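Exercise 4. Each item below gives a protein and its sequence. For each, produce the structure-token representation.

Item: Methionine aminopeptidase (Virgibacillus siamensis).
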Amino acid sequence: MITRKSKREIEKMQAAGDLLVKCHKEIAKMIKPGITTMEIDSFVEKYLAEHGATPEQKGFSGYPYAICASVNDEICHGFPREEKLQDGDIVTIDMVVNLNGGLADSAWTYPVGNIDEKAKKLLEVSKISLDKGIEQCQPGSRIGDIGHAIQTYAEGEGFSVVRDFTGHGIGPTIHEDPHIPHFGLPNKGARLKEGMVITIEPMINEGTWQSKMDSNNWTARTVDQGRSAQYEHTVVITKDGPLLTTDQDK
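Answer:
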């Protein structure tokens, strides 16, 4: 069932989003060659606790960590680990913050040290793909409009859009209806209505869009070892257009 949030619920989700943004900005300062994603996970757990919040995905369906940390060809749900990040890597940090029952979900792909030109292009296209999808978040638009805008742009730039994982409604739990594919046809799917809160989180690959699953049954990676990038915002549908609870540019 697709739910619409009250003003009070949205205010709580905005507070969670504000905290998530602050946490991501601290993570951005930490990303450099030699750091481990396990160190970032420990930082996030401590940071959220100090601010009265919890990492919502820890324990969700048995997931064991405060963050997902996906490196290079890992598409999503990468486990934090003790391997040091290397110069030239890219790493996506994805997390869900619960602050007093309000949820916010955001992923960001970070360059580690000096990355090559194709990686820079991948990150740029992935970020613009997210923006293209957000532009469609108007009352009366359809879910297919979001995916079509993303797919048309990303494929036009020579990249592919992952199809096995989608955005979703959020609140009161992590994954609510509706599913938000990042590909598809315009004028298809459910209509967006004021008060809906969704995530848009395109995963964009260098090569083919197909994925395979690691033995941990969580981590998805590209089948051709091409790199993958992802940016994600939590978006409220309002009569005045999309409101980003996880906007880093406010």
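Check: Residues 7-244 form a domain with the Creatine Amidinohydrolase fold (CATH 3.90.230.10).
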